[in-house]
Design brief:
The chain is an alpha+beta fold. It is 25% helix and 25% strand. The protein binds dioxothiomolybdenum(VI) ion.
């Protein structure tokens, strides 16, 4: 008996706490005797620290200590090379965090950090990704665990023989995650136990890493992340702040608060790798693809290998019997790239969905129709059936809502005063995965229920969605359910990442609630004072899932206007239609989808890590110089979804929606710019200087 909470709009449960300022973020918890840590970044790109002089910092009133490789607590090696901080004098990239100053006040810590004197022996560095870099190599696999290269049929021969060919290279720059709350931690040691309030996308992995690094039992580490101010992937695994704070707290014997500065986020927490992507499509005159190839180049660091799955999107998106994908990497003297909203799929889709538009133009086929013609019946990569695939439904519904039928396919056909106006479309897909999770459900005397799961709500509304799922699974009104998330003391569940949060967590919540209902059916008399609790884990069920191709899909439509004199681009309309299974909460789902689309707009027009090889780092590492979309850039933005029932996912039938919104958006905008101006921008962002030639033509 469902109470029907799933599918109903509901504001975030914690909304009132957030807007009244009572929701605590990582460095906002009141703590007695607290001290402040301030991290010190390396001012060399590659080399060794030869001398650290802490005295000028220690002379600042209130400064308590300076922690560096010479005096830091020893961490266990072989846990995570990214987290092996302050253990040796080697510098792998500019901005690597190499010391921490602790002080009685944040001002003193900051001043101390400025004054620590550090000398280096430096070596020549290489920090720029190029298509012919001598260090290019083939990694053994790409993230999260895909084959590096794939091949079916005979791409070379069929591409050469194709009536219509597209052969284009697309470039994307480095992108930097900038959650509102930086990577931040309050760390406290007591009797060998470590308590951290930390900003992360999953506190179980943080707990595990800390226990291993500091060689203490897992039970001795508690990680609380009740509220998190965004992450976008950058907080998907433990990062420097939490390790530095824990070391600092151990060293001074007092609690430490440490937040990375905005500038320190540009590097040490990872970023989306720049890419160089060659896409080739060979088709017949009707646009039916015979041969499809996507070769992707990206970078990793000297510290560890991070191999982004850039070309994986092309493996399953469109049909074509002859296909190939490859990934190549270069190790550079740079920070290690990391996850950023739809890592791989997002830049990969920019390239493929742009190439599809080029193919549509070359064949004279409408780009919506071209995608429908190339919709595969089964996954062209693995040959598995799709659990559900509603790309075509999204394209058709999107075209209808957008008014696509009225479009004049000719470029440069619409002009209003100085504005050249164009429209574009792109497909979108993202895997619909789930991972194991555990949860407990408790029935309390008096009719209330408590559901506990170590999910992470990074601002997405996950807590609210799980509460709705729990109410339905328990068959009680939502007001009778309380949900607890964001604490490693709760039953372990995976991170908020890979669009797997709600699918994985709701699965465990449903199983715990169902188990509780079964128990209650056999229970007679009063409930014990602490209630009746059932724990469930989905590990076996998740492992036993049938091998099907499971993806969410979307269709992104954009209208742009380009100033014919200045090349200024405005996105006047973005419209996305998505197929993502059951939508648990339309309010928070819409917010996720338009958030992703807005980030895609930002990628298309603004974001760009500008690297200076002499300096060996990005020159724009703050929000004054690294441009992101602001409210004024978002004119009209609409997100819709088509009804989709998929019984091969999880008990709630949900596909993740955290990432699908960003996939394809930049291509839709680039395709619209091509339609408006005749200029194809294959090198993001679409800055006005790249369009100046076009406006002269117009
Ligand atoms: Mo997302 S980039 O998997 O947090």
């Amino acid at each position: 008996m469902s109470t029907g909470a799933v599918g109903q709009p509901h504001p975030r449960l914690e909304g009132p706490e957030k807007v009244t300022g009572t929701a605590r973020y990582a460095v906002e918890y009141p703590v007695d005797d607290v001290t402040y840590g301030w991290a010190v970044p390396a001012a060399a790109v590659r080399g060794r620290i030869t001398r650290i002089d802490p005295d000028p910092a220690l002379a600042v009133p209130g400064v308590l200590a300076v922690l560096h490789h010479g005096n830091a607590p020893r961490l266990a090696p072989d846990v995570d090379s990214e987290l092996y901080l302050l253990q040796d004098p080697v510098v792998h990239y500019r901005g690597q965090l190499i010391a921490v100053v602790m002080a009685e006040s944040i001002e003193a810590a900051r001043e101390g950090a400025r004054l620590v004197r550090i000398e280096y022996d430096t070596e020549p560095h290489s920090t720029v990704l190029t298509a012919d870099h001598p260090g290019l190599y083939r990694p053994d696999k790409v993230n999260p665990n895909y084959p590096t290269d794939t091949a079916e049929g005979d791409f070379d021969a069929r591409f050469a023989a194709a009536e219509v060919q597209v052969d284009a290279t697309y470039r994307t720059p480095a992108y930097h995650n900038n959650p509102m709350e930086p990577h931040a931690t309050t760390a406290q040691w007591r009797d060998g136990h470590l308590l951290v309030h930390d900003s992360n996308q999953g506190s179980t992995p943080v707990q595990v890493s800390l226990s291993e690094l500091f060689r203490i039992p897992r039970e001795s580490v508690r990680v609380v992340n009740e509220h998190v101010g965004g992450g976008f992937g950058s907080k998907g695994s433990p990062k420097a702040a939490v390790v530095l704070a824990a070391m600092a707290a151990q060293h001074v014997g007092r609690p430490v608060r440490l937040a990375l500065t905005r500038q320190q986020i540009f590097g040490p927490v990872g970023y989306r790798t720049p890419t160089i992507q060659r896409v080739r499509l060979g088709a017949d005159a009707d646009g039916r693809i015979a041969a499809i190839c996507h070769d992707a180049i990206s970078q990793t660091s000297m510290i560890t290998e991070f191999a982004e799955q850039t070309a994986v999107y092309t493996r399953s998106m469109y049909a074509g019997p002859h296909r190939r994908t490859t990934h190549r990497l270069v190790r550079l003297d740079v920070p290690t790239p990391f996850w950023m909203r739809a890592p791989g799929e997002c830049p990969g889709a920019y390239a493929l969905e742009s190439a599809m538009d080029e193919l549509a133009t070359a064949c004279g086929v409408d780009p919506v129709e071209l995608r429908i013609r190339n919709d595969p019946a089964v996954d062209p990569d693995q040959g598995h059936p799709f659990s559900s695939r509603n790309l075509v439904a999204c394209l058709i519904e999107g075209a209808r809502r957008f008014g696509w039928a009225e479009r004049n396919p000719r470029p440069c056909a619409r002009r209003e005063g100085r504005w050249m106006i164009g429209t574009g479309v792109a497909g979108s897909s993202y895997p619909a995965r789930a991972r194991a999770a555990a949860a407990t459900a408790t029935a309390l005397p008096g009719g209330d229920h408590l559901v506990r799961i170590n999910a992470a709500d990074i601002g997405t509304g996950a807590r609210t969605a799980l509460w709705q799922v729990a109410a339905d699974a328990l068959g009680v009104p939502p007001e009778r359910v309380r949900i607890l998330v964001g604490d490693s003391d709760l039953p372990p569940a995976g991170v908020a990442g890979g669009s797997m949060g709600t699918s994985s967590w709701s699965w465990a919540v449903v199983r715990a609630c169902q188990g509780l209902r079964d128990q209650l059916a056999h229970h007679s008399g009063e409930l014990p004072a602490d209630g009746l609790t059932v724990e469930a884990s989905t590990a076996d069920e998740v492992r036993a899932q049938r091998p099907l191709a499971r993806y969410a899909y979307g269709a992104q439509f954009a209208e742009v206007r380009v100033d014919a004199d200045t090349g200024e681009v405005r996105v006047s309309r973005l419209l996305g239609v998505f197929a993502a299974g059951q939508v648990v909460n339309p309010t928070t789902a819409r917010s996720q989808l338009i958030g992703g689309m807005t980030m895609g707009l930002s990628m298309a027009l603004h974001e760009e890590g500008v690297l200076d090889e002499r300096y060996g780092d990005w020159v724009n590492h703050d929000l004054a110089t690294y441009h992101i979309t602001g409210c004024a850039d978002v004119e009209r933005i609409e997100a819709y979804w088509v009804p989709e029932e998929d019984s091969e996912l999880n008990p709630s039938g949900v596909k993740g929606i955290g990432e699908i919104g960003i996939v394809g958006t930049a291509a839709a905008i680039a395709n619209a710019v091509r339609h408006a101006t005749g200029v194809r921008v294959r090198n993001l962002p679409i800055r006005l200087d790249k369009l100046l030639g076009a406006s002269r033509l117009a």
